[in-house]
Amino acid sequence: METIPLETHLRSLLPVDGTREALITSVIPRLLQSVAAVADALRKAHNVIAAGTANTFGDHQLNVDVTAENLIRNAILNCPSIVKASSEEDPVERPVHPASSSSPTEQYTLAFDPLDGSSIISANWTVGTIFSLWDGASALNQLPSRAQIAAILGVLGPRTTAIIALRMPDTAPSQPVQTCLEVSLDPYTSTWHITRPSLRLSPRSTYFSPANLRAAAEDEAYMSIVNGYITRQYTLRYAGGLVPDVVRMLVQGQGVYLSPATAGSKAKLRRLYELCPLALVVECAGGEAVDPVDGCRVLDKEVRDCGEKGALVCGSAMEVGEAVGKLLVGTGEMGA
Amino acid sequence: METIPLETHLRSLLPVDGTREALITSVIPRLLQSVAAVADALRKAHNVIAAGTANTFGDHQLNVDVTAENLIRNAILNCPSIVKASSEEDPVERPVHPASSSSPTEQYTLAFDPLDGSSIISANWTVGTIFSLWDGASALNQLPSRAQIAAILGVLGPRTTAIIALRMPDTAPSQPVQTCLEVSLDPYTSTWHITRPSLRLSPRSTYFSPANLRAAAEDEAYMSIVNGYITRQYTLRYAGGLVPDVVRMLVQGQGVYLSPATAGSKAKLRRLYELCPLALVVECAGGEAVDPVDGCRVLDKEVRDCGEKGALVCGSAMEVGEAVGKLLVGTGEMGA
């Protein structure tokens, strides 16, 4: 049974006026190509270990990070529509092409985290690559809910898969474009196949992923939320990598991921490289992504600086609402 | 920098009398070869998804399980020293070779779980293959601490790695053989390199992995243990796959993994295919593996039937002791 090619599928979703032609034919294919390249580099990473003087992968982690960064930077050189890029490894927005280059009709800014999951990579757990794509020549000082039009999560595990989320806020309401799908790499033909054309998060869940759990030691609200899940016999899964944890929810069709912040256990997730793209993915699957410190939707707050960090509760909508409600009461924000 | 070949390294550890020659030159290489084959099959599994009528990996999970089972069964056909085998998919000990085959000097029985981690495989999380190797023509009704001489955990993640644990109880005390090491596959040459020659678990830990957490809803002792870890700000990691969870502890050098049993939430782990090999790995790394229902060491109890299940607390020795102590008090076993 033949599956629909990715490009054909995306074209069927996007406006027919051709205003997103480069996105479909150049930007998304190049980014997926770089995911395949990073996966391949990671598979080879044993060479680094075996050849090096140290015998733990952790010591060479930086090498793999740098390799991934370089592979992605090289991939986007062939993509005229990506005009600026910044990354978690080099968090400054810089032009991708020389100033003399011709100015493309479509212009996008890329923010990326080349290899997310540093705490688990040495154990050979699944890690990820995160891409956030913005309309225009900067991701900064723009409303994410309007300007961030796509996010891709590369999932580097036993297989190589990716989640693609798209949302075009400027599309006519009669033709809304919002999609979240899974593609899988055929390692022999280097072709990506659509394996889950529509990922959906149900409003309720019986799965939970408590990140930054140290915060619960000093935050009664978080402790009470976690104990509530255990008492109600919710299933625990927590890899400690944002990409595998969120992707597991999407594939399961349910889940709640919590990464609150307290005075002693600060917010850990980078807004530009982690929170915004993950929030877009979750929202495109029908879920919610909220900052539990103020109760605001993640995508309603502009990113002012590439280094900003934030807290997060995301996943199944009703679970997110309940958890955020309790966390806000705990900090007294609710009555403010 | 050249690393020592695996065969040379193992030979340097084992008795020089040649009584384990087939183990080194045939059994371990064949089993590692089958790990590489399973990893390859899993990478290709997207074909199953893309070509099938269902579009979730879960629906095709059985296919991948069966493929892994067949790959391993085929690999051991070329290994005369493995005289009997049983697996989680086919839990009956059967002869591997025709009755007319010549009788090898070394005789081993293999018990294996071809693909452990069914709950997380669809999300592209790291999963594992488990091998347990016993002296003689059966794994049943033998003392595991004496008869189970090796265990291999294949780790199928972004890379392909494996943990090899060996213990020869019949070796002279002056020359004890007990080792736990990590090897990594070079996917281009199909060679396994030693990447961590000696894995050790420290007696104390600040990491915890609470499996079967539903049991905590009805077991005050388990709930109190988990809340104790959170209060003391231990780091949570829980993949929900026995191989990735235990391997993470080994690579981190610390951790405690708990899978208790209660009346409402029964023991989940199979003694022959999961508990015994994992216990050997953990003990060979200097940790402990205990059944929290009776406080007995996992390897001190014979397996009577291929289908037996049991509970487990394993990892850093002092953490295991404390947790088991609390669970036994909770069930009243302590005073019995």
TrEMBL record, chains A, B:
- GO-annotated biological processes: fructose 1,6-bisphosphate metabolic process; fructose 6-phosphate metabolic process; fructose metabolic process; gluconeogenesis; sucrose biosynthetic process
UniProt xrefs under Pfam families: FBPase, FBPase_C
Domain Fructose-1-6-bisphosphatase class I N-terminal: start-end pairs: 24-166
- GO CC annotation: what is one? cytoplasm
Which keywords are on file for this protein? Answer: Carbohydrate metabolism, Hydrolase, Magnesium, Metal-binding
Q: Which domain of life is it from?
A: Eukaryota
Q: What cofactors does this protein use?
A: Mg(2+)
Record keywords: Ion transport included? no
User: Lipid metabolism among the record's keywords?
Assistant: no
* Protein family (similarity comment): Belongs to the FBPase class 1 family.
The protein's name in its UniProt record = Sedoheptulose-1,7-bisphosphatase
Q: Can you name the source organism?
A: Parathielavia appendiculata
Q: Which lineage do the record's taxonomy fields give for this organism?
A: Eukaryota, Fungi, Dikarya, Ascomycota, Pezizomycotina
